[in-house]
Design goal:
heterodimer; A: mainly alpha; two-stranded antiparallel ribbon; 18 helices; 62% helix; disordered N terminus; B: alpha+beta; elongated
């Protein structure tokens, strides 16, 4: 019944990019910012009572545009019903984050950690706002265009990262510095092509982010979109081009010489193959040809892969394993709600450890309850989209599949580094989570919900 | 549209919204105050604190810095040793006596070697256990020393500005007293005595004023927001409950095909 209603009531005629609605254009700006702008290294030259990072302004504009639009919007002919519990993970995580601060307020204020907690909470609220607004306003007909946009932006990011490795010039930081210099200060790029092996065992190639793992994560999360677009393309030429794009994205991730650069894309692809094996196996010949083309485009990619094993990984592994015993005293002291969200100041190396695992970091900061909520936040999009992951509906099925694989890739990357410290991947994750929610939503004629029973078969819906 | 509908639902449930505001207010109060009923009182849970800092110079009786012929290395080595000594229990007793605060309320840390790789600076489980025990201390001291300078930086934290300044000023004095007593006992000649010079008076101030209000507001808005968000699904559940009572199974099937009483649904909404 809802599917039938969805067929009769759609917004297809007014979908991004063929729309004048400002919000989808803001979503495109947000994605552009995630993939192309080193926004966490940009501070606007204005004195404000809160952080002047660029992303806060973009999110504020997004919220303002949404609020004005919601206030001025007229009666619509179509209404969307989202799957029950679509925001449960996000809400639980925000609530537990605040509760962890409220319950630890004495210790937090005594140690002067409220400032850090405040900053991290501001980022969390920004992320929650992005998730809510995208979930509420993205239309199913816009899923595919945004999938295409994600791939195009990821290809540019991968290209820029490859150039960074070859030339030592970080085009993202340099361009941002030139364009934004009148209104903002842009930190120097962290790029280091030939580091001193005694202090830095691997080159630092970061693309538009502050850390190599951050750029590999966003590329790994974009990869399923390229693969799915290749799989659903009817024309072989188009399919080949998407496969080339996928190879470029993989090359961009691998060139950072981080193991995560191989792990995250591999896990994303694995999810696709598990969910749609037949559709994906058809791509194998295109993959071989595209790989050959990618090797021509980015010569030396195999040496990069080889270097993954040669570089000094011993310190990295030791650092990761030594985190586990070191975290025990804190977990035993505050098992339920941890020390307080955002109080882990990794710059105070004499007091806190840099956890190369976000799950461990969340366990430390928000306890077992917070860890469960964090896991719920990652799993909820996969759960709500499960009904459309194998769907043959071209509007919803393929984008939902790619978005779910991207969410899974985020979950994998969370086990490899402190992912919430670098905002690009969390923003992209919440955008793809919102895509899952949108794909699983049902469109009905306005007013239809008045006649809607509480339970629609096995699917419970919330209006 | 959805925002308008949400606001409309909340307006229909305005008594519950008002109750939510009251619950959020209570949660906000409880987040920053400990409430006692007998006798009735509110005690702040947050610690407004002040910090102060000063520096001390490890020097020779005729200042080593004025004469280019003097080698500063022995002074740098001593500064490093003194910085470690300052965080010891023996030193803390002297500092507590000078600053007139209970010694068991003082937690001292440092100096840390910033030149080591991060992995070696990070605390082990044992070090973290010690840090956790001292986290509740109201008076905190931190000592820093650059190995190539004969200077020790002292950072003090206390509930009031005066106490923080007293604590910071007490550190150089306590060190001077301790070294002076050793020199007297050993009858060290005057020209070979190490001298501790305080580089100016401690400066500081209150650093986290207004934190109570910020945390209380955060808790209020989060609890109130969560309450309002819960009202929306609660309304859906209530509607479903009433429908099942109104129609029973057969009626619900009719409703599924749009044969329900339109007016009844609108009334429920």
């Amino acid at each position: 019944m809802p599917e039938a209603a969805g067929r009769t009531a759609t917004w297809d005629g007014d979908a991004w990019p063929h729309t004048r609605r400002p919000l989808p254009w803001m979503f495109a700006v947000l994605l552009g910012m995630i993939f192309l702008v080193p926004f966490d290294a940009i501070h606007l030259k204005v004195a404000l009572p809160f952080s002047s990072d660029l992303d806060r302004f973009v999110v504020m504009v997004l919220v303002a545009v949404w609020a004005i639009g919601a206030a001025l919007r007229r009666q619509q002919t179509v209404e969307r019903l989202r799957p029950a519990g679509w925001a449960a993970g996000m809400i639980a995580f925000v609530l537990i984050a605040v509760a962890s601060i409220a319950f630890n307020v004495e210790r937090i204020t005594n140690l002067g950690e409220w400032g850090d907690a405040e900053k991290h909470l501001a980022v969390l609220f920004s992320l929650a706002a992005v998730f809510a607004i995208v979930s509420l306003n993205l239309r199913p007909a816009e899923l595919r265009p945004f999938s295409v946009l994600i791939v195009c932006l990821a290809v540019i990011t991968a290209g820029g990262t490859i150039i960074e490795k070859k030339t030592g010039h970080n085009v993202f930081y340099e361009t941002a510095g030139k364009v934004l210099s009148p209104i903002a200060e842009v930190a120097p790029p962290p790029t280091e092509i030939d580091p001193n092996p005694a202090t830095t065992p691997r080159p630092t190639i970061t693309g538009p982010t502050r850390h190599a793992l951050s750029v590999t994560t966003i590329l790994g999360m974009a990869l399923p979109f390229a693969v799915v677009l290749a799989a659903i393309s009817q024309a072989w030429r188009r399919r080949f081009l998407w496969a080339i794009a996928a190879c470029l994205i993989i090359a961009g991730a691998l060139i950072t010489q981080r193991k995560s650069g191989a792990v995250v894309p591999a896990m994303a692809l694995l999810v696709l193959f598990v969910l749609r094996p037949r559709q994906l196996l058809r791509l194998a010949p295109f993959g071989v040809v595209a790989l050959a083309v990618a090797l021509i485009v980015t010569p030396g990619i195999f040496s990069t892969v080889r270097e993954l094993g040669h570089t000094n990984e011993q310190d990295s592994t030791t650092g990761r394993t030594s985190d586990y015993p070191a975290v025990v005293p804190d977990i035993l002291t505050r098992p339920a709600l941890g020390r307080g969200y955002g109080t882990l100041d990794s710059e105070r190396v004499d007091t806190y450890r840099i956890f190369d695992n976000e799950y461990l970091g969340q366990l430390f900061q928000v306890g077992f309850l917070g860890l469960l909520a964090f896991l719920a936040m990652i799993v909820t999009p996969l759960f709500v989209a499960r009904s459309v992951l194998r769907s043959d509906d071209p509007v919803r099925g393929p984008p939902a599949l790619a978005a779910a694989a991207a969410c899974f890739a985020f979950g994998v990357a969370s086990a490899l580094y402190d992912i919430l410290t670098f905002p690009q991947a969390p923003y992209l994750f919440l955008f793809t989570a919102a895509m899952c929610v949108c794909a699983a939503s049902v469109e009905v004629p306005a007013g239809w919900t008045a006649r809607l029973p509480f339970q629609l078969g096995r699917r419970t819906v919330t209006t | 549209m959805e925002l308008a509908r949400t606001l409309k639902i909340l307006w229909h449930r305005r008594r519950l919204v008002a109750l939510g505001a009251f619950v959020a207010f209570l949660a906000a109060i409880l987040s920053v105050y400990s409430v006692s009923l007998a006798p009735p009182s509110l005690t702040s849970r947050t610690n407004v604190f002040a910090t102060a800092s000063t520096q001390l110079l490890v020097d020779a009786p005729d200042s080593a810095f004025a004469d280019l012929a003097n080698d500063l290395t022995p002074l740098e080595t001593r500064a490093s040793v003194f910085a470690r000594f300052l965080a010891s229990p023996a030193s803390l007793e002297l500092i507590a006596r000078e600053a007139k605060v209970p010694v068991e309320s003082i937690e001292a840390e440092g100096p840390y070697d910033m030149n080591l790789p991060v992995i070696q600076q990070e605390p082990t489980a044992g070090a973290r256990s010690s840090q956790l025990i001292g986290e509740g201390a109201l008076y905190r001291l931190r000592f820093e020393n650059n190995p190539v300078l004969p200077i020790v930086s002292v950072f003090a934290q206390a509930p009031t500005e005066a106490e923080a300044m007293a604590l910071a000023n007490a550190a150089p004095k306590a060190l001077s007293t301790y070294i002076g007593s050793i020199q007297s006992n050993q009858q060290t000649p005057d020209d070979r005595r190490v001298v501790i010079r305080k580089l100016g008076k401690a400066t500081g101030g209150v650093v986290n004023q207004g934190v109570n209000l910020q945390i209380a507001m955060l808790v209020f808005f989060i609890v109130f927001g969560a309450w309002c968000m819960l009202l929306i699904p609660a309304q859906t559940i209530a509607r479903g409950w009433r429908e099942s009572q109104l129609y029973g199974d057969a009626g619900a099937a009719d409703a599924r095909f749009g044969k329900g009483k339109q007016g009844e649904h609108e009334r429920v909404r």
